[in-house]
Structure formats: structure tokens, C-alpha cells
Design goal:
Elements lengths: L2 H7 L2 H14 L5 H14 L3 H7 L3 H21 L1
Helix pairs in contact: 2-3, 2-5
Length: 79
């Protein structure tokens, strides 16, 4: 499995749901669980500082738009 397949396999929506329940509803999570969830999100969602630098090139802008579309699809699934 290559890196892109691994990223596709990670269920970002489920991770966001769990973190949201922890923050909003007080669902118990250990520090290890929170750290693992955040680490997975960092692997799947665009880093804003990298995105800002990448936006200076045409290829970078296209990649940011692709990532944002994926991110927005995940957010829509939360609704």
C-alpha cells in the first residue's frame, strides 16, 4: 500500500466525530487517543503553513484545491 492509499484508508470523518464528541460532549479519551487522532489528521489534512507557501505556484494551487475539496467533502459528511 502506498502513502496515498493509506491516506485514503484513514477515516477522517470518524476521527473528527470522535474528537468533536470529546470536545463538545465530554466523551472520555485518553491523552494517547487524542494524540493519535491528531497525528492521523495531520497526515490527511493539509498543513496551512505548507499550503500558504505552495499557493505561490500553479501546481501548488491545484494541489491545495484538491486537498480542500477532500476536506470539504469530509466536513459535509459531518452535517
Amino acid at each position: 500500500m502506498d502513502r496515498e492509499e493509506i491516506r485514503d484508508y484513514i477515516n477522517v470523518t470518524a476521527i473528527i466525530d470522535v474528537l468533536e464528541n470529546h470536545i463538545i460532549n465530554g466523551t472520555e479519551m485518553t491523552a494517547t487517543q487524542v494524540n493519535a487522532a491528531l497525528a492521523l489528521l495531520k497526515k490527511t489534512l493539509p498543513d496551512l503553513s505548507v499550503s500558504k507557501e505552495a499557493s505561490k505556484t500553479k501546481e501548488g494551487k491545484e494541489e491545495i484545491l484538491r486537498l480542500l475539496k477532500t476536506h470539504e467533502e469530509a466536513l459535509k459528511e459531518l452535517e
